[in-house]
Design brief:
The chain is mainly beta. It has helices spanning about 95-105, 115-120, 150-155, 180-185; strands spanning about 20-35, 50-60, 70, 75-80, 80-90, 125-135, 140-150, 165-170. The strands form 2 sheets. Strands 1, 2, 5, 6, 7 and 8 form a 6-stranded mixed sheet that branches. It has a two-stranded antiparallel sheet with strand order 3-4.
Length: about 210
């Protein structure tokens, strides 16, 4: 007779949590995720929308030095990344995505319709405003509340990041190896997944 195992997560690495505040950051990833269902708003269904997942390499606001992940109390060479997803509505003149665009280009008047516009912003600097929250399991986490333009004085002093810059257009790109697992999972749920470039090959996992 088998002994019922007990899962022990005591050794599970805790997620790195940034303290609330405004941090200099560089945009390191723009991943197109296709048309995704949206969460209802106040009980009312919302139309599906094209979604992008973005990542930012974070810097110390006091020293402008990169913030590195720690392992067993020792700093690694992995710079801290924080993520934020947006639903894009081309032509929109308000909303989270429009504010994101304005942070990178204050002269813009509406959300662009060309995905390459977003990808061309890779490695540019912005300020990410971080807030803390607690999960249902009682764990502390952080998330990006908003993104703002970076003051020129900071932009001129901000070091380069060692994080690999990543861009993914699901209608043109087929390689998934450089994507994070949560991004691949979201791609698989896209309403227009059969139109992805990767799905023109019958051996593709989303076909």
């Amino acid at each position: 007779m088998s002994v019922i195992p007990v899962y022990n997560n005591a050794k599970k690495n805790k997620k790195f949590v940034l303290q609330a505040g405004s941090y200099p950051a560089r945009l390191t990833s723009v991943i197109g995720l296709g048309i995704q269902e949206q969460e209802p708003y106040k009980g009312e269904a919302k139309s599906p929308a094209f979604t992008i997942d973005t990542a930012y390499a974070v810097y110390d606001p006091a020293t402008l030095e990169p913030i590195y992940l720690k392992r067993d109390g020792e700093a690694t060479e992995m710079q801290v990344l924080t993520f934020r997803s947006f639903n894009l509505f081309p032509g929109a003149q308000r909303g989270h995505a429009f504010d994101w665009c304005k942070a990178f280009d204050p002269t813009i008047s509406e959300v662009p319709s060309d995905l390459s516009w977003f990808m061309h912003k890779l490695n540019e600097g912005v300020m990410v405003n971080i807030v803390n929250y607690e999960t249902k399991q009682g764990e502390q986490r952080h998330k990006i509340l908003s993104i703002q333009s970076m003051p020129l004085m900071i932009a001129n002093q901000l070091p380069e990041t060692n994080v690999e810059l990543k861009a993914f257009d699901p209608y043109m790109d087929v390689e998934l190896e450089h994507l994070f697992p949560h991004q691949v999972n979201t791609l698989s749920k896209a309403l227009d997944a059969r139109g992805f470039a990767m799905n023109q090959d019958t051996d593709n996992p989303f076909a």
